Amino acid sequence: MVRVRGLRTRVGGRVLHDNLEFDLMHGEVLGVVGGSGSGKSVLLRTVIGLIEPEAGDIEVFGEDWRRLDDAGRRVLEAQWGVLFQDGALFSSLTAAQNIAVPLREQLRLQSPLLDEVTQLKLGLVGLPGDASAKYPAELSGGMRKRAGLARALALDPQLLFLDEPTAGLDPIAAGAFDELIRDLRASLGLTVFMVTHDLDSLIAICDRIAVLVDKRLIIGTIAELLRNPHPWIQAYFRGPRGRAALAGLNGQAVG
Amino acid sequence: MQSAEAGFDLRTEGDALVLHAAGRWLIASAAALDRALGRLAEIAPGTRLRIDLAGLERLDTVGAWLLLRTARTLEAQGVVASIENVAPDFAPLLDQVAKGEVAPLPAPPPEGVLERLAAILSAIGERTFAAGAEIRELVGFFGLVMVTALRTFRHPSRFRSAALVTQMDRNGVGALPIVGLLSFLIGVVIAFQGADQLRRFGAEIFTVNLLAVGILRELGVLITAIIVAGRSGSAFTAEIGAMEVNEEIDAMRTLGLDPVELLVLPRLVGLVLVLPLLAAYADFMALVGGALMSWGSLGVTPPFFVRQLHQAVGEWTFWVGILKAPFFAATIALVGCRAGFHVSRSAESVGRLTTLSVVRSIFLVIIIDALFSVLYSRLGI
Question: What is the pLDDT of residue A1?
Answer without folding.
Answer: 82
